[in-house]
Amino acid sequence: MTRHAKNCTAGTVYTYHERQKDTQKSGYGSKAVRLGKDSVKNFDCCSLTLQPCREPVVTPDGFLYDREAILECLLHQKTEAARQMKAFEKQKKKQEAEKAGKVEEKERSKVESFVSMEKRITTKPTSAFTVTKNVAGPSVVMDEQQPSTSSAAVNSDGNNKNLASFWVPSLTPQAKPTLLKKPDTKTYCPMSGKPLRIKDLIPVKLTAIDDKDDQPMVAKSERYKCAVTHDVLGNSVPCAVLKNTGRVVTMDCIEKLIKKDMLCPFTGAKLKDSDIIPLQRGGTGYAGSGVQLEAKKAGPVLQA
Fold first, then answer.
1. Nearest residue to 250 via CA among 268, 269, 265, 261
2. Which of 99, 141, 196, 217 has a CA 20 to 30 Å removed from the CA of 167?
3. pLDDT band at 142 (very low <50, low <70, confident <90, very high)
């Protein structure tokens, strides 16, 4: 076979192309792909539905959600936590019942052993040994009341040895169910993974661009503008939300205008650093946008 054949198998080197081809066919190894501009959401889209928000709200970490979508997500987390808590309480009651049953069984065994010992003391006296005459001579036989021990039930140490058996129901080994841990009743943000409550959501007021065309808002590429400078907002423009009013302004406006005296340009109220929430935006397709644009999927690895 020639060197430049389509399926050359005479090469002495395992090339990069062959390794990638085998990895794709076998499914082993981690896979990585770089996301393009069409694979990231716009800054004004919900982080769950990836659609333009009808009633936008923002978390303290700057993730934008549609109110309906995030409330449904938090409600689902609450319902799941309640279901897990119910199962945990049922398991806890079962364990307490089993513990009480073991204590009761232990007390019952003590009473039974005491009663059996009392019966031994109050029985009529009998001869401990009986003499029988045989041809070989007299022999000593144990009384029937003395307990006999079986060599099969006693091990070399003198203790009873109970072995697991697969044909006796009482000795059959059982697979106990996995114990449930106490569930966490907190609700978490789907994007940041931090605790999130409904009252932490901040309503956002986006300033729409005033144009005279009759196109729907979804069909427009440029939909909103800065509430102060009227600059067009997009994934390439860093912006932030003012917590007291919910207005969206550019970071340029915050650095050059608002941070000079830390006063709200709409109400004149004093602002704090915590009142300025940087808005998490999608990528632009360029590495300089500061957004992770590479997706990785870990797969099983063959080990020599």
1. 265
2. 99
3. very low
Average pLDDT over the chain, rounded to whole? 80
pLDDT: which is higher, 162 or 171: 171
Strands, E assignment, the chain: 31-34, 56-58, 64-66, 129-132, 139-142, 202-203, 207-208, 224-225, 239-242, 248-250, 276-278, 294-297
Question: Three-state SS across the chain?
Answer: CCCCCCCCCCCCCCCHHHHHHHHHHHCCCCEEEECCHHHCCCCCECCCCCCECCCEEECCCCCEEEHHHHHHHHHHHHHHHHHHHHHHHHHHHHHHHHHHHHHHHHHHHHHHHHHHHHHHHHCCCCCCEEEECCCCCCEEEECCCCCCCCCCCECCCCCECCCCCCCCHHHCCCCCCCCCCCCCCCCECCCCCCECCHHHCEECECEECCCCCCCCHHHCCCCEECCCCCCECCCCCCEEEECCCCEEEEHHHHHHHHHHHCECCCCCCECCHHHEEECCCCCCCCHHHCCCCEEEECCCCCCC
Task: Give this prediction's pTM.
Answer: 0.64
175: its two tokens: 């697979």
Give 212-227 pLDDT, tens digit per residue.
Answer: 766 666 667 788 899 9
Position 163 scores a pLDDT of: 62
Instruction: Name the token pair of 117.
Output: 């010992």
